[in-house]
Structure prediction request, 188 residues.
Amino acid sequence: MKRVPILPTLIVLLAAAYMVHLGFWQLDRLQQKEAMLARYTAAQNSSAEVPFIPESKLAEATLYHRSRLDCSSIGGMTTQSGRNDKGEAGLAHYARCGTTHGWAATVVLGWSRDPSAPNWAGGMVTGWVAPGPRLVADPPVAGLAPNSRPDPNDIPNNHLAYAVQWFLFAGVALVIYALALRKRMRAG
Prediction:
């Protein structure tokens, strides 16, 4: 009767153990993501206005809150595909704003089907802080229609599926290795 090979068995067991570890890590990430989404939903339901902070590391605490900024100068305008408040596809009009604080901020001015830049020279903008960070104007400016409101429910939360996937990978690796060992033992 053949002996069980030590090194291959050890490698497969370590790999399977690491896959199980990754599954539990994804379950931990699931709890973190759910807490973050609950925080964002509470922010969206709050009437409190927060200062707009364009620095991405600091802006996380302000996401989905109401905010405002004074766009004192326009550094350029662009369009990206976007949806209006009725869910229709079209173009979101973006402006790169210089502020009185000396930093630049991205503002989504509004929505239209017309790709030409709106005639807007800047001014006070109120709206919702969205990932980026960017301020989504609400109400829209420059005669544009409203964009869809940033929604934390649009953030994917696939961590449970990833956890199940890692656990299945570990199980499949162990089953395949067990079948290979069984075949080896019978052949010997």
About this structure: The mean pLDDT is 92. Residues 164 and 180 are 24 Å apart (CA to CA). The first helix runs from residue 6 to 45. The first strand starts at residue 49 and ends at 51.
